[in-house]
């Protein structure tokens, strides 16, 4: 026996027990090695005219012997000499594939696509096998050689027999392990079953370019036995029945017909009583599909093919809303096939949801969900990325964080964004459906990045326009702003109908300005994170009247209108700093506030610290009162935080509330009359009612519903 070197033995032990975290990938590694061997032979045939290779016969074969507990992976590739067995399998971490790849780097591409690079994948077999036997015959040689090891101390190499070139890797599987202390045991039987091997091939090696074949057992109905169609001739029948017929006249004919009918019925009944019998037979079946759909150009694939692939691969009942296929070439080459689902999965916004794209390297699946390929705001995207250029770790189970991976992720993010923008512009109905499903994630992407992603995501957002009664983009809102509007106005709440009826919303609308009605819990947080919207190509605003007139004259003479980029601030209509009133309206409100300061002080005391101050409003039209806020926390933000998972027992920030009164409303006269009559009890009653009423308008319950009901009854 040839001993493993000390460092090789340590590496083997480390690899079997530590490097690989999932035993079942051993088959992926062995199939990848077999594919490499076939690739090398195929390459030799393409580059050496003296070598004739029947490409149609190139294949990988799986076979099992349950009684002997062996699984064999065979290929008809280039095979290995004794020296190559010693070099490739006797020295751990030496990669013949990597060596071959380096020597023929100029041929990389369609004719050469070697998978293995680390020289350790073969040894993953020892995770499931107690003995591995490799029988290999190199192309052009007459003698085969056998490498054999138990993965413990060393290996042997001897001469053997194999009919043709290629390699057989024969695994003798480990014995099943019983469970201990209530823990389940470990079974290796799956790797000896047809369904188990089919499943592993489908998941990890479905797109290896050569057929992976296996004899599978099937059943079919047994052929029915030949029927005895021989019947007596008509002359024999006549002779036999002659005397009887003569004696009984026509009665015998009638009897004969009756007997024939009964016989037919009996025969039919007998046939129907026998269920069809089945027999088993073996058939060589190709387990993998070989041709990855993501390698094809989109012009070569029908939409129905993409839809079927998506539904079967990602277990969705509905076709995708959009399919994105692209192929990157140059210093970093990869293929990507992405899908935007038709609807959001039920667990999309739960902690259990896992984002990520399936990562393949040379058609072999490396990771089922590579989270690093998708930003959180596009976590709903499903799909596949296939690249031979990404740097993998030694087990090929995880990626190393390198610039290649970041470059692919960046390109994917931009591609998804551009595809969504195209859907928004060319198929608005479909985009609005998409946004209903996934828009919350885009908004959260801006909020969670503290506004850093606003430049990429802002134009993908949709909000409900109170004026136009439809969903609009921020760009559409900005372009429809009348002259003199300097902010984007919004109202936040949980119900669009209620928001549209709020006094502060009606006030802004009455002045000709639109209001975005924001009903998602993340909306206001998103707009605060953005602070401003960077609008592009808006008509230029001229502060100088002479310049404006000159520009209008130039346009009338055929010149292009002057455009400008503009930063437009977001403003909550319920915020106290909204300044839409005219100078006269503001002056009147300020004078009324000063004139009734004692009344307002009494009302503030009656509310016992619930408001920062009471004042006359310059913006209310027909409502008697409204609650506005000062500072960064609005009433809606306060509500959202109170509903959050960390709200219980937490000292959450509260909004700074202001009770604004409409001095033109009849209720204001009631307040002043009560104050002047020194009727403190009635003033407190009115104040409490106005405050609770304003809360209800904001979609918030009174802090003391019982007291609110009692005040109503007292007035009645």
Automatic annotation (TrEMBL):
It holds the Pfam family HSP90. It comes from the Bacteria. Residues 22-177 form the Histidine kinase/HSP90-like ATPase domain. SUPFAM superfamilies: ATPase domain of HSP90 chaperone/DNA topoisomerase II/histidine kinase, HSP90 C-terminal domain, Ribosomal protein S5 domain 2-like. It is found in: Cytoplasm. Residues 1-396 are annotated as: A. Belongs to the heat shock protein 90 family. Molecular chaperone. Has ATPase activity. Residues 221-230 have a biased composition (Basic and acidic residues). Keywords: ATP-binding, Chaperone, Cytoplasm, Nucleotide-binding, Stress response. This is Chaperone protein HtpG. Homodimer. Residues 265-275 have a biased composition (Low complexity). Residues 218-282 are annotated as: Disordered. Residues 640-716 are annotated as: C. Residues 232-244 have a biased composition (Polar residues). InterPro entries: HATPase_C_sf, HATPase_dom, Heat_shock_protein_90_CS, HSP90_C, Hsp90_fam, Hsp90_N, Ribosomal_Su5_D2-typ_SF.
């Amino acid at each position: 026996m040839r001993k493993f070197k000390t460092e090789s033995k340590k590496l083997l032990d480390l690899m079997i027990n530590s490097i690989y975290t999932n035993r079942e990938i051993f088959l992926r590694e062995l199939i990848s090695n077999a594919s490499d061997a076939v690739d090398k032979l195929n390459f030799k045939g393409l580059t050496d005219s003296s070598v004739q290779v029947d490409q149609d016969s190139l294949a990988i074969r799986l076979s099992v012997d349950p009684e002997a507990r062996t699984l064999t992976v065979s290929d008809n590739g280039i095979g290995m000499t004794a020296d190559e067995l010693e070099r490739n399998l006797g020295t751990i971490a030496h990669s013949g594939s990597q060596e071959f790849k380096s020597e023929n780097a100029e041929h990389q591409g369609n004719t050469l696509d070697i998978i293995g690079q680390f020289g350790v994948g073969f040894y993953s077999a020892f995770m499931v096998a107690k003995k591995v036997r490799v029988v290999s015959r190199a192309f052009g040689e007459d003698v085969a050689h056998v490498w054999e090891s138990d993965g413990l101390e060393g290996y042997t190499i001897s001469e053997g027999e194999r009919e043709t070139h290629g390699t057989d890797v024969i695994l003798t599987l480990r014995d099943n392990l019983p469970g201990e202390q209530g823990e389940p045991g470990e079974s290796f039987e799956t790797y000896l079953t047809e369904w188990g091997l089919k499943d592993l091939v489908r998941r990890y090696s479905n797109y290896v370019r050569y057929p992976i074949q296996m004899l599978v057992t099937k059943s079919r109905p047994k052929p029915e036995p030949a029927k005895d169609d021989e019947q007596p001739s008509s002359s024999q029948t006549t002779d036999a029945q002659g005397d009887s017929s003569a004696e009984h006249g026509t009665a015998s004919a009638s009897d004969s017909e009756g007997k024939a009918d009964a016989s037919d019925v009996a025969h039919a009944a007998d046939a129907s009583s026998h269920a069809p019998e089945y027999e088993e037979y073996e058939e060589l079946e190709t387990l993998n599909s070989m041709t990855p759909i993501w390698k094809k150009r989109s012009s070569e694939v029908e939409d129905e093919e993409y839809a079927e692939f998506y539904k079967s691969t990602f277990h969705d009942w509905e076709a995708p809303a959009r399919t994105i296929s692209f192929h990157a070439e140059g210093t970093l080459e990869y293929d990507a096939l992405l899908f935007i689902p038709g609807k959001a999965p039920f667990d999309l916004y739960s902690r259990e949801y896992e984002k990520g794209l399936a990562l393949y390297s040379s058609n072999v699946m490396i990771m089922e969900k590579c989270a690093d390929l998708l930003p959180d705001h596009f976590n709903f995207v499903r799909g596949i990325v296939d690249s031979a250029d990404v740097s993998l770790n030694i087990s090929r189970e995880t990626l190393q964080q390198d610039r290649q991976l970041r470059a692919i992720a960046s390109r994917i993010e931009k591609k998804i964004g551009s595809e969504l923008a195209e859907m928004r512009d060319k198929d608005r109905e479909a985009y609005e459906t998409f946004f209903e499903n996934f828009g919350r994630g885009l908004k959260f992407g801006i909020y969670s990045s503290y506004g850093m992603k606003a430049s990429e995501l802002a134009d993908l957002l949709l909000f409900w326009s109170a004026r136009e009664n439809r969903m609009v983009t921020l760009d559409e809102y900005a372009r429809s702003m009348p002259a003199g509007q300097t902010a984007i106005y919004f109202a936040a709440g949980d119900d669009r109908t209620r928001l549209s009826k709020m006094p502060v919303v009606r006030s802004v609308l009455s002045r000709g300005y639109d209001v975005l009605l924001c009903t998602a819990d993340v909306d206001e947080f998103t707009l605060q994170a953005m602070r401003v919207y960077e609008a592009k190509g808006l008509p230029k605003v001229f502060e100088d009247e002479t310049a404006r007139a000159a520009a209008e004259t130039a346009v009338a003479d055929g010149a292009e209108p002057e455009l400008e980029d503009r930063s437009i601030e977001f403003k909550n209509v319920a915020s106290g700093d909204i300044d839409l009133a005219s100078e006269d309206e503001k002056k009147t409100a300020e004078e009324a506030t000063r004139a009734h300061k004692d009344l307002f002080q009494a009302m503030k005391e009656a509310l016992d610290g619930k408001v920062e101050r009471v004042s006359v409003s310059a913006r209310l039209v027909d409502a008697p009162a409204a609650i506005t806020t000062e500072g960064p926390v609005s009433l809606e933000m306060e509500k959202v935080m109170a509903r959050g998972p960390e709200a219980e027992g937490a000292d959450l920030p509260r909004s700074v509330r202001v009770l604004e009164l409409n001095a033109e409303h009849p209720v204001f006269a009631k307040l002043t009359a009560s104050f002047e009559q020194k009727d403190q009890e009635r003033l407190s009653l009115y104040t409490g009612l106005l405050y609770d009423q304003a809360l209800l308008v904001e979609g918030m319950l009174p802090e003391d519903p019982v007291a609110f009901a009692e005040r109503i009854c007292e007035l009645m």
